[in-house]
Model the fold of this input.
Amino acid sequence: MEEDFLGGLTGRIVIPSDPDYNLARQGWNHAVQNYPLIINYCQSQQDVRNAVLWSVNHSFPLRVRSGGHNYEGYSNGNRVLVIDLSEMNSITLEEEKNLLHIQGGVTNRLLYDFVSQKGYPFPGGTCPTVGVSGYASGGGWGLSCRYLGLGCDSLEEFELVDYRGTVLKANKSCNSDLFWACRGAGGGNFGVITSMTFQLPKKTRNVTLIEIDYLHVDSLIQERFLKVWQNWQATADNRMTLLARIYHTEADGPAMLVRGFFYGKPAEAKEMLEPFLLLPKAVKNIEYVTFLEAVTIIGSFYPPFEKFQAVSGFVFQDFVPSERAQLVSLIEAPAPGSVFTGLSLYALGGKVSETGTNDTAFFYRKARYILWLETIWEDDRYACYNRNWIACRYPEFNSLTTGSYVNFPYSGLYCYKKKYFGGHVRPLEEIKLKYDPDNVFTFPQGLFPSGNSPFEPVNNSQNPLKDIPWDSLVDLLEAEKQKETEKQQGSENQQEAENQQESGSQQGAENKLKPGNQQESETQQGAENQQGLGEQLGTENKLTPENQQNTRSSRNPRGFRYVTRRRKYRSF
Done:
């Protein structure tokens, strides 16, 4: 039955009974645990076409995954088909035209390694394992953006497999509306991007790497730090892009940091950074290194995975002293079990703002920076406390910011489409209807969100596939398809069932236990009462070799990305 059901899928297939399934299903944010039914590692464009057609023919929900870094797990889901592009990772260069061609599964690390050998920089992201196709289609912030633009600004063309399995080419003259939409509106909405072509900047061998740290400061210094940041933004040289952060941990107490690149010499950078360096407890490392060394050092701060939740917004204005104090207060009382709380500031402006608001789907071109509030935990017992910590602070955070960055998604956003896409919502919806009228490519925060089927993603720590044989899962899928067919016959039966439920009649209860719903009902009931089972499952997962390899050192529970390099200053 397995072979019959999977017939038509090509590439490498992983299902729940396979030994590598538990590792294959994980995204970077381990706070979100999804259990797909099929993971299809595509190795060619034809594999992708086959997967899309299989999904449509089986009325089977799909997700598209490149690097697996969607913070809310939207590139994955429960009982879905995951089209994974990570094994499509070839890169070629047309050096006479400075054109870089990549497949849809290329990561920042692979791209940086390739272009640096040829002498080029690239406006990529900071985390080495992020997929470039998802990064660029959502806009693409990085430490070169003020000088080289967002990742999407260098995009010249891409190929996309649509809901019919057809390969579409999109550029400024061919399917230009689709090309516009996929430069800022995020991946997974219109189809599967299988390749991208970027225009490379002029060759640059060296950059100045900027690292400044301030440990064990107080809230007043953090407020001064935010003021210095605002002043720097007002007159910043386009060649310099900074990331700043105020944060709190047990080891560092209240602390701050600055990271950045400057496309110039260190002496000039130090002069520009003098206000930051004059703040108390500043410890600096400003050095001239190759572009590859710079991105590798920044990338080394990222752990193999994290458990976190965060929310982002754009800032267009200066904050008055009371508002800066308000921002600092957001992180002063961490959630129970939190190992890190932080407020990060990602500089925009420069070349980002030189591109018109309507030139791409990235709406917030004129913002000064992105603000990001985050909490990280390790023990699953504290997950709900940390999620509530973000939820409780979101209204205040929302009052100080505008919109939200689609590459930093938050499931609790108010009016998420308006937040992510601003004034571009309507044209994006029209483009969505044109290129995906059946809403094949969808997820909970898609342009047309997914529904409430039991086959949609659920952010939980319970495994809905545990101990269910493959044949039973296939039967369950067929029952769900039959149930959807019955629902489409009319609303009369639905209304009758609702009336029976309200009256509490036994007949109504029996009608609700149709074959398609009985398994679902039993699964849901078990999920409500199996907290102990979930903990046991979590223990089993922790004992797997894959997870043992990914376990972070207890000396540095937050991973590298919030601390200075150990070889330079200190260790935990």
Summary: The two ends are 53 Å apart (CA to CA). The longest helix spans residues 383-400.
